[in-house]
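W.,

You were right to be curious about this one. When I first looked at the sequence I had no strong expectations either way, so I just let the prediction run and decided to look at it fresh. Below is the sequence, 549 residues in total, followed by the output.
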Amino acid sequence: MVRDATTRHRAPGDASALGPGAAFGLYAAADFDLEDGASALSGDCPTIPQALWYFQRETIAVPKRGRPVATFAARVSVSDDLRSWLAQRDASTLEFPPLVWVAAAHVLTEARLSADASTLESRVGALRASLVPKIALNRSYFDATSAAFFHQRTVRARGTMNGTAFAIRTLWPEDWRIDRAPADALLPPGVPETLALRARMRAQPSGGARSPFAASTLWRRAGVPDRIPPGRTVLAFMLNGAQGDDDEAHGGHFALITGRTDEQGSIADWLVNDFYALDSESEKGILAAPVPLDNYLADLNSGQSWYRPSQMLVLVLAQERAAVLLQAALNRVYNHFWRHQLPYRHASMNCAGISVDLLRLLGWHIAARGPASRAAATIAFPYVAATERSVAKARVAFDYLVEDLTRLMPAAAFEECGAAALRLAAAGLAKSVSGAAAGPLERMLADDIERVLYVHLPQLPSSRVFGDAPVVTPWEFRARMPVEPQIVPVPPRPLPDALWPHDLVPVERPASHYAAIVWGTLLVVGIPMFLFGRFREWRRKRKVVSDPS
């Protein structure tokens, strides 16, 4: 049985992560209990065991008994399950995520870190501060520049309190907040929204890695007050940029976010829905889950802001229904993801692909850019297979070149989702390019978007080199790759056989599977037959020459 958080994690005042006013996106934190995955796995937690296994050494929040937790249908594809659920869902019910990765049991706000990062002053008094250890595979960490940065401002700290000691897991700068009336910074007229957003992302050196936090208004509905009321629901798109010291990460990362506006403009407790590879251990300890935004960006090991700049496009909504629908669908997708009914593939089913697929399934027409080049993919397969002596690498290269760029590249997903939101906000409902009618999510957003905000989040200073804006195409990715790329090898993390579901249905194979069959057939059958035919023709001609009679 899941035990009450207050009996397991005692702290003075409001230091509990489930304290008064705390939230996880759309959900009150008081509706959850704190656990670690191992304890919950041995009890009767409503969360599926596959999810708990991944978080067995992590602090998670699980819904209290009686809360409606997202489920799933077995023996069907993810898309079929979601379509059936969408047709039958009770829109009045707020379905809870199976878990939220909170990472630590305690949260301190309005805290001050000493210049040497040894003391944390807050409303609960002065605490001896320490940092959670750096993960061995992580290439950089908090240093003197980090301490100087946080010493200059109040911070929100997630960690573990033990008496007068506080082990810091996350440090969030509290001045990273949205002003109640963000200044207008409209996109230039006459420029396609996708290109205008790209120009905004790349307007500052290194993608704004060293630039200050900034929030501005891209669009506001006529008649809407200048000031954003507290409690407004938001639906946002997150784009993390290119990493400076890992050449596998030039494409960036994409995530969907839900939450509510705050009286002081805080965004720390918005809920980020992060999809990440399950079957290998991240060198930074990243896990795929719904996670509070402060931890997603500023966890000392896994926080995205420690190793690249980020951008966020925020839709402020008049009603909560669109965000509730999207979050409920995401909660359901996570069950399939942790069970491996939805396999993570870097080329054909990554963070962008999973997110864009869901938006489209919910009836929002996000434009498809199409593949980078099918012709190049056809040539690349045998070339990579021969030069790299690896069919697996050839398949990856093929998939990268034939996949819809909107699903493949996080920056392309951000641009297309942002453009779709801006067009929908400005023009309302319209037929898609294909002539299909708008679905439920698109109809809700057309009525409910009050304003669109653009938020820039810089990289936090540390021993890591600064990142950059993410690339938009495989060609740009290739151009950035050095002769000897820096890639961090990571160990595998297979789901134990005892937890492997036996009711999974076959999933659609990537395009490279069929390319491998075609090229394999050519190599085994086609080319030998061609050479044999040429050989027979050569012998016939030779016979004619040697025997002219």
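Here's what jumped out at me. Confidence is low (pLDDT under 50) at residues 1-13. And, maybe more interesting for your project: Residues 238 and 312 are 5 Å apart (CA to CA).

Coffee later to discuss?

I.
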